[in-house]
Every structure is written in structure tokens, then in C-alpha cells.
Specification:
The chain has 294 residues and is of the alpha/beta class. It contains 11 helices and 15 strands. 33% of the residues lie in helices and 29% in strands.
Amino acid sequence: MEYAVECTGLEKRYGDFVLGPLSLTVERGTVVGLIGQNGAGKTTLIRLLLGLAGADGGQIGLFGQRVPNPENLPADTKSRIGVVLDTCSFTQAMKVADVEALGRAVYKGWDGRLFGELADAFGLDPKKTVEKLSRGMGMKLSMAFALAHHPELLVLDEATAGLDPMARDEVLDILRDFMLDESHAILISSHITSDLEKIADEIVLIDGGQVLLSEQKEALCDVAGIAHCRAGQLEEVVGLGLVDRERARVLRHGYGVDLLVPDRFAFARAFPDAPVDRATVEDYMNMMLKGEAL
């Protein structure tokens, strides 16, 4: 099995903030979604993987090869990665047509035809300057640039931020098309968890610089649930083996408790009178971050 991304024991310190030690893998043919609160370490992790910041410890591997000096990635490795950060990285005076010319100059595998098709689909005027683009249009320009050199790995940091729902769906469709090639992979960080539910294969929750959760999306959204039960039922639920005491999370309120259960169907069979809802990615994140351990 070859990973597009494989980092082990990665560490970075910024003043009082410490990322890691943290390990993460992104397998080819998969989309990994990063979630977490602002300041959790998602962007720091992405910057380390791209060589935009130096790590204080650990190892990074890209495309099955260890990267000895991530801050000085070889040109051929960079050409295999498409990047969309949370802000448009082109200079304000550049026109959309200039961005195409830049790609042609930088990447051997640049596809001007594809860039033009994406620019047309996104409604990007070749004569318009970057400074005249809205945040959402700037993200579309970055997306077109990232895809037009045919990367194997896409790294997206809040790429759908600032886009309206229809535009977000358009971007997600493009990402689905990208993933039709099973050698491709995507690492995407987003606060819009509903977008990740539509495209991600795996969800990684980061908080305080640590990975709290790394799980297949189907296990979170298709199987797990939020059970609404009486406080007195908790020990019975644990006794029946319906939750792992070390991983379970509970929110207590005046009329009972909300309990994160890994299998809502098993819970419903054991407690048919207790309501249990499907867990969304956002539900799961909130329970992990705000819930108490048993």
C-alpha cells in the first residue's frame, strides 16, 4: 500500500502552542477530511506537509518516499501536489490570464486547455485582476490553477469557504471527478462539515495539536449515533458493551443525557424506547470536543 502522505511523530512549536507528536496517513484513492476548531493545528499541519514551515520533529513521506528536507521539496515532487490555501496566493495586480501564463512557465505538465475550461466554468474573466475578485472567486481561481497541472495529490485548506452552496457543490463535483483516478488523493480541511460528509472517506479530528479521532466516515455517519437516554441507563449501556468506556462521550442536561454510541442500531435493539439519532460529522465533533468521558 502506497500512501500519498505519511507523517510520523510530527511536531511543531509556536510559542505556547504545540502540534503533535502527530501521525497521519492519506492513502491513494481516498479523501481525508480534517476537522477541528480554529487554532487546533489543522493549518499548521498542512503547512508542514507542504514545506511552508519546518517541523521540530518527526518524519514526512510523500508518494511513498521519505522527504529528508520538507522545506526544500524537489520541483518534481511539488509538481505532483495541487494546493488551495484559505487565501488566494496570487499577487493583486495579476490578471486571470497572467495566472495561466504563470502555470505554463512553472509546470511542465501544465494544461492550458483544462485551465481555460475550469475558468469558464467558474465564470473567471481572463482580463480581471486578482484584486477585483471576491473571496469566493479567488478560491475558484486557486482551484483552477491547482488542477491544471494534473497533480496526484490535492491539499485544500478551507477551499470551499466563501462559496455559495451551488458553487460549493460545483467544486465538490470537480473533486469527485479528480478522484475517479484511484491513484489520486485529497487532504481537505474544512469548517463546512456537510461538504466533508459528501466527499470524504476518512475524518480526522484535531484538537490542541493532537489527533483525537481518525475514523472512516461511514462508521461515523452511517453507523454511529447520538442516544438520548436517562442518566440511570448509562451503566446498563456500558454493561451491555454498547460503548467503549474510554472512547464514549456524554453530554448531561436536566432531563437526561446525550450519549455518543458507535452503533445506533445495536443501541436501538437493546433500548427500543430510547430515541437515537444518526450522527453527522458536526454532531460527532461536538460530542468529542464538548462531551465528558464516562
